[in-house]
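Attaching the record inline, Q. Sequence:
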Amino acid sequence: MSDRLLPPVWVATSSALESLTNALASQTRVAVDTESNSLHAYREQVCLIQFSTPENDYLVDPLALADLDPLAPIFANPRIEKIFHAAEYDILCLRRDFGFTFANIFDTMQAERILGFEKVGLDAALEKYFNVIVDKRFQKADWGARPLARDLLEYARFDTRYLIPLRDALQRELEEKGRGELAREDFHRLCWANGEVAAETPEPWERYANRRDLNLRELTILRELTNLREKIAAKLDRPPFKVIGEDKLFAIARAVPKTKKEVADMLSERQAARWGGEVLAAVGRGAAAPLVKRRPAQRPDDAVLRRLDALKEWRKKVAMQMGVESDIVLPRPFLNALAERGGHDMKSILETSPTRLAQYGEQILKVLGG
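Structure, as predicted:
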């Protein structure tokens, strides 16, 4: 990594944030990334936002700033291109934590996927295009800790430092391959990625409800164990998997221990000392409670499944010809909608991707038998 770069600008006051937004507002393109603390906290939050312009790198500290609303016009401005690598997750986090809306996105990872790159990680791109080797020691760092070490700040700034020239290199290759318009359509849809909130949040145990290696009594015990784990994790502000791992919960639910010693034999010494009694009580509640009910699986009818299989087989062949993964040819939302509707309303289904409609519309109708 070059020693000639200016130090990144740390933005942790309202006046520094105002200076940053003024600087970004004058740009036509800015690179963006975020760092969250999902591996270190019960409820994930954005702990750092990185911006780069051709001149400077900025590190914004959301934990020190009460209001990030001044950044909202930057993300929503269609005249400023926001360049991300793997934009979907960043957009989800920024929308969730700050309510930002987005316009004019370029996703370098999606560009690489459309080009058929075998490796699409940012570290691979930096090495390939700029001979920059990223130190991977900090990939699981606790970004919620303060102060952040200087090495972490340097690591964070390189997530955006080269995105603008990388974008230019990838754009040239997209145009050379005739895939530029396809990429622009996908970038536009990314502005709305994961924008809808689920109407109903499932209970923690329900993520395991369809496991056939657990019977209903074991699932009922597991419900009590996962509820206990969530309670402990929230109190400690720690991810649930760092309290008690899933494999241990499954083993306890199957074994139905009846004594503290039996529980202790299935936990670490530290876990048993801190929560052994609570775990035993949770097992008891689950053993006596009415059985949970599995939600019936929503199985599509046979005609939909046949159309789905036919579309998957077709897109696999096209993807092999293009040298890309299958979902580049036909992303899952399009695939499922076409299978469900049997080709009806194909124009409305593919409305946000006229390139795919023009290129594959007739082929898709033939595959669907109409």
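The beta strands are 9-11, 29-36, 46-52, 57-60, 81-84, 105-107. The first strand starts at residue 9 and ends at 11.

More tomorrow.
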